[in-house]
Amino acid sequence: MKKIVFPGIALISVCYAFGRFSYGLFMPEISESLQLDDTQSGAINSATYIAYCLSLLAAPLFINRIGHYHVIHMAGISAILGLLGIALSPNALVLTIAIFLAGLSTGLASPALGNTVHAELPPEQQARGNSWINTGTSFGIIVSGPIYLLFSEYWRWSYIFFAVLGVLVLFWNRRVLSTRKTEPCTKSLWACMKPTRPGMALLMASLLTGFSSAIYWTFARSFLTDEKGASDMEAVVFWIVMGIMGILGGCAGRIIERIRIGRSYHVGILLLAISLGVIILPSMTASLSSAVMFGSTYIFLTSVFIVWATRLFRPNTSIGISLAFLALGAGQFFGSSIAGYTIDLFSNTTAFLAFAVLGLFGLLIRVKVAD
């Protein structure tokens, strides 16, 4: 299993943590260097969501026609080009194109790696394999946090370093993965992608989780520094703690095996909502406690969605993962916009509480899948 899981973790780190989420970490320095205002910076960041959703729609088609092995290569190349483009960006237009390229890699990587697990690992190891690969985001966050602290003023060199890591990870995956293809969709692709009623429950759960978690990914750091008075060092420590605790999401496979998918999902939703409420408490200890809960629970829930999707959409696992993550991304896209509007209209405290309560509605979703 390690032969598949370790390079998969590394690829997710490059695509998600470096290619997608690191822009939010380095955004103040990038904006100052390229003379971008807040509106431009936010609009550029939305390119990652658009690219993510488009590549998730395209991934099943590519995997069905050319196999997951080649789609993993596409994801790696897209991430590397995007990271290099960010490093060399002379203006907002080039930066937007680079952010878009980097965002494409995320929507290609997750379905392709899910298909790899389905093709390469025996059924009893697939839940654990998918869960550990999904922790790659956390490992990447752990790496990007210290890089930011050391080289925040030299953000271009940081992105060149990320791109070099991407090249090494791409060759690692190329070396260890086989070209074996899973069974293609025998009907039209759109017929295979049409979700059943249990599939609709998965999409609703993913959409709601993406929506409620968006406020945390987008505004948690600024909430700490602007309203709670945290220093930049404390904010980055908060970011790193969130990444470290996300590694616990790798235990999702074993937890699912013990308490089943339905209970795993409901426990995760409850803890995610609690983390949104705890961050509004005044102390830094409360903020770090929130980071612990959110980091571990978010990765845990996305792992649950991957396992849930692979069991509903066999043998076309990439289709299920693509649809689940598409719903998650759509929820984050709309949730981020509405969160900003809510904060402007009311306050950070009101917005975080409102999104926590909204997230609890996920407890009403019934999970029906063969465990």
UniProtKB/TrEMBL annotation:
InterPro entries, A to Z: MFS, MFS_dom, MFS_Efflux_Transporters, MFS_trans_sf
Keywords of the record: Cell membrane, Membrane, Transmembrane, Transmembrane helix, Transport
PANTHER family associated with the record: CHLORAMPHENICOL EFFLUX PUMP RV0191, PURINE EFFLUX PUMP PBUE
Domain of life: Bacteria
Topology term for the membrane: Multi-pass membrane protein
Record carries keyword S-adenosyl-L-methionine: no
Organism: Paenibacillus xylanilyticus
Any one GO CC term of the record: plasma membrane
Domain Major facilitator superfamily (MFS) profile as annotated: residue spans: 5-371
Protein name in UniProt: MFS transporter
Transmembrane domains' residue ranges: 43-63, 70-88, 94-113, 133-151, 157-177, 198-217, 237-255, 267-285, 291-309, 321-343, 349-367
Annotated GO MF terms: transmembrane transporter activity
Flavoprotein is among the record's keywords: no
Main location class: membrane
Location(s), subcellular: Cell membrane
